[in-house]
Amino acid sequence: MEEEEFFRLLTPQSLVQIDERIAEEKAFKKAEKQAHEEGEEEELAAHEEEEPKPNPKFEAGKKLPLSLKDLFPVEYTSKPLEDFDEFYDTQKTFVVVGKDMTIYRFSATNAVYLLSPFNPLRRGALYVLVHPYPFRLHVIFKIMKVN
Fold first, then answer.
1. Sign of dihedral through CA atoms 111, 99, 12, 54?
2. What backbone phi and psi angles, to 5 degrees, belong to 81?
3. What is the tens place of the pLDDT at every residue in 105-142?
4. Is residue 107 a contact partner of residue 92, using CB atoms and an 8 Å limit?
5. What is the pTM of this model?
6. Would you state the torsion angle of the CA atoms of residues 78, 82, 87, 93, taken in this order, to the nearest 10 degrees?
7. Residue 7, domain member (yes or no)
8. In what ranges is there compositional bias, type Basic and acidic residues (predicted)?
9. How far is the C-alpha of 142 from the C-alpha of 126, rounded, in Å?
10. Which domain holds residue 118?
């Protein structure tokens, strides 16, 4: 039996799966609301759970936990990955892990209504954002040009 990978690249199929989970969540909440209106309190108590919260270990801006650094494939650095925090399963987000193992979280919706997460321009911008050296070099060259 194959073990499911913890880190998975973001693909168009990933976005379809996220949309399906969002639709399931909406349908569940709608059914829950109807049951509440009809007075079926017993069924609600059985399905009632605490609201999920984001895992503080996977918070944006933090470093990847030491326990996961060994599992992280180096070739996935700077590439959009499916969000590995269960809290974001029903939200259109993805993560990018920088070379310094910092976690960055982004929206998987179209940026500026045009650029999908798979657009080369958006991927290039993500690369510059998660790697401080290209950005710093750009700023240094601009400063040098002004002088």
1. negative
2. -120, 155
3. 999 999 988 999 999 999 988 888 888 777 778 788 88
4. yes
5. 0.78
6. 70
7. no
8. 27-37, 44-61
9. 20
10. 12-146
